Amino acid sequence: MNIRKLRKLHLAVFGLTLCMASSAVQAGQSFTLLNYVPDDVFVCEAARHNPSRQFIDDYWNDVFAALDESGVASDAFGFISSLLGEGEQAELDRFKSLATELIAAVDWDSLCGKEFVFAQRWNEVKTSGGNINVGPPAMVWMFQGDAQGSAKNYDGLVAILRAMASEINKAAGKEVLVITDGTQKGAKTATLSVPEMPPAAPEITLTIAQKSDIIFISAFGSGMLDQVLSLQAGSGGAKAISKKERFKTALSGLPAPQDNISYFDMQAMLEPIRGIVTAVNAAQSAEFEDKITNRNTSQEANDLNNQALAAYKEKDYAKALDLIKKAHEESPVDSLIIYNLACFHALNGHKDEALKWLTNAVEAGFYAPNQIAKDEDLASLRSDERFAAALAKAQAEAPKKDGKGIPKIATEMLDAAGLFDYIAAVGYTKGHTTHADSVVALTANAAAHPLYKVFGTRKPMGHFDRFLPEETISFSINSSVNLDELYKYAKTLVASVGSEGKEALSKWAEIQQQIGFDLERDLLSWLDGESTAVSMKTESGDAQVFMIRVKDEDAAKEKVNTAVTAAQGALSQLMAAQAGNPMLGMFGFTVTPSTHERLSGFHSILPAMSPGTEFVVGVAAFHVIVGTSPEAVAMCLDTAAKKHSSITSNERLMAEAVVPSGSFHSISFEDKRNFGKDMGDLIGGVAMAAPMAMMMVPDPKVQQLLNKCAGILAKLGPVVRKIDFYKSNASYTVFDGKQWLTKSVTNYREPTKHASAKAPH
What we know:
Elements: E1 43-48, H1 54-70, H2 72-82, H3 86-104, H4 108-111, E2 115-121, E3 126-128, E4 131-133, E5 138-144, H5 147-172, E6 178-184, E7 187-193, E8 205-211, E9 214-219, H6 223-233, H7 245-252, E10 260-265, H8 266-284, E11 291-292, H9 299-313, H10 317-330, H11 335-347, H12 351-364, E12 366-367, H13 369-374, H14 385-397, H15 405-417, E13 420-430, E14 433-442, H16 452-455, E15 472-478, H17 483-495, H18 499-515, H19 519-524, E16 527-538, E17 541-550, H20 553-577, H21 582-586, E18 589-593, E19 603-607, E20 615-620, E21 623-627, H22 630-640, H23 651-656, E22 666-671, H24 675-695, H25 700-720, E23 726-735, E24 739-748
Antiparallel strand pairs: 1-2, 1-10, 2-5, 3-4, 5-9, 6-7, 7-8, 8-9, 10-13, 11-12, 13-14, 14-24, 15-16, 15-22, 16-17, 17-21, 18-19, 19-20, 20-21, 22-23, 23-24
Helix pairs in contact: 1-25, 2-25, 8-15, 9-10, 10-11, 11-12, 12-14, 17-18, 24-25
């Protein structure tokens, strides 16, 4: 994607525009803004403007110019306006005028005309009572243009922010958003915040800052922006990700980045989550299982409960009791609120009331014996026999609630995600092609985890051209995963939930027995999983073939024949039961043995609704094969038997494909020469079908709406057909047991001339 292509994306209805870019830099040059990104982020995207990609901008400018000329935007706005009342239309017109003025005040081209960076990291984990909140990650965007343009764009973006806050406050009828102007580390700032937030809630802020030729946008807290500005000023103790050895290692096996860099650190993302799960597991390993049920809390009750906890922290126990009573009125069956009611009564010296509500809390489902036994708020009650009775009830009920499975499965899922160390990618441009190389690295001990057997033990493939004829248009070959190990892992994961998981597996076994189908015996025992999909040209037109490799050819033939016979029998029974239903007859089909000389044992499937169409299904060359024509399937089999020229004889396709020198785990090629035409035809077909839809809808108002939609689509079709500049996408992936390496390329048509060198968006 391009900087200029995306220059008018904006948040919310007319809100904050964030220019997400991907451009290039001359080989050997650094990405300057990476020097201002803290080294503890887990996501980082960097891009630079690349003049050599201007041809892509020109292509898209032609599309946008056609969109402007089509009048689709005006029609769409008019359509929306027609659905509104007179007062609402006036408000929409006001809103449109305001948004247009605000957006025009920002020079979106210059905003990130040089460079762009996005990064995010976790905020500090916050706790309140028994609640743990990591909140949303802190995010920062950096846009580098020129100093004069950045100052102007800062004012324009802040104006959008102020208008957004004003509109929201107006709709809410009160001040829910506040904007504060200031300075930070030499940068001028405007910060939007939510003043009324409950205790331990994440910091909801959005700050726009500007210093020199850089605009910074920071969300969810000020700490990250502070470090970014310190790095930019060359002060403070923060370290930049560009200097981090782990980051350098991730990029070291990839080509020099010219267009963009992407980095995702799985371990950094998982670190705080692991801490939370560890804390939960520690609580679960106590002498008695603490399992609180009946958390039927409304939003109002939850807010009041948080306010009560805030008063409790300030030791204003009378206020806390008053607030928790109101929370109980909102959610009278919430066991946690009832428990807090007992605690606050005890702290106010109301012993009998406290004991009554403690008993009620346990009866309501507060099965937390450790909490009850150790809670100092209930210290004044411990000598009373009613306290002992409530505690005994909680101790008796807690073990009945099997809560061990959830923390265990959460740990297992984290361990599975933790097998992946990092993902890194770089982009670069050569002539009229754009390239992306990426690496997905596993941790050092990944092979010891059961999940590794699912995706890490597949044998690589060779001879990608085996089944691909010279007439191939597009194809995809994938080694898939180890299906046997995937099923074993899934069952182990379900069992780890505890008694509920074991019960689910038992029910699954019963279901399989009832329907007479065993997944392992009747499918996984003979299915390998390696797949090939190919589109090609035949004498009768374009056709598609899908193939999936099998381990046992005889077993595969038996199962496929059984499945086809069963499907035909089920359809016959259904049609007999619904005799006289003409619509059902349209969806019927006939199955006969294939008469093609190369497809002995295959089935021909003839759909009633499409005379002359023939699908085929069968097993050959250790593959289950499904094709949209017998000719296409025979062509693939002949290619494998070396009786037909393979794809390697297709000079045009091979010139655009990327092919590994050795074995591989996946490879694909997608012809996109007709992308715009196909999309335009699809949109046009939908538009043409609108009159038929209107005949089925008696309501005149709905007919009118459908007619307007059809008109908009009819104008959009020619615009989409302008997207005729792609040639193809191609990629392959190899895996060495420790990491996946993927190479991808997008081929574009060589430019000739364009309707406009630079059209307004």
